[in-house]
Amino acid sequence: MQKMVGLVRRCVEDYNMIEAGDRIGVGVSGGKDSLVLLLLLAQLRQYNSKPFTIEAITIDMGLGMDYTEIQSLCDRLDVPFHLIKTEIGPIIFDHRKEKNPCSMCSKMRRGALNQALLDLGLNKLALGHHYDDAVETFVMSLIYEGRISCFQPVTDLDRTGIIQIRPMLYIHERTVDSFANRQNLPVLANRCPVDKNTKREEIKQLVYDLSATYPDLKERIFGAMQRLPLPEWAPKGRYKRPKEQD
Description:
By secondary structure, this protein is α/β, with parallel strands linked by helices. It contains 9 helices and 6 strands, in the order H-E-H-E-H-E-H-H-E-H-E-E-H-H-H. The chain is 46% helix and 12% strand. A 6-stranded mixed beta sheet has the order 3-2-1-4-6-5, with helices on both faces. The longest helix has 19 residues. The model has no long low-confidence stretch (mean pLDDT 89).
């Protein structure tokens, strides 16, 4: 726990993600990434030099998922839990029958999250993207869009005044998986009809295959993003390569 919270703290400090008095909404899908983020931020708030509060927000996609265990976890962590009911799933899959639903789904979920934050008076949204997500997004942009791009550690949404932060960027996916298992977090099965059948999964497999030949591939890509040509990724502190942990 101490090592994991330390990685989050270093990321938060390197990118000035949290200021004193911040009211942070944590996007909780029920997957391992968002649950680990929730747990680590709940721990960090206890002794962070800049006091902040967190609240969990779950967007119910209308796919028949049960979030009772998520509510129980939030109760144990003393974190307010907000379940936002939507019909995003039926709209995309039943009514519109989208052939490539991921982009529209992401926009609709993010819109629902942002509206929930505004309604609750929260000023920041914490998302559970980790180290591998950043590397894969960079490669996706290069291959599918022909541009050098990635989401930013901190994103200021001008139209809403909400700031998105990604405090787990220094933690590898394998480390997240192992930690979630050791903590017995109530990870929910994803009921999305296209789960594990997306362009991101193709890129994940590509990066995995290339890493067998080039073991430092992910570290080199991540390091390149922190230097140039993505200035938003330049950390304030001296970057130290995070290691995968079982």
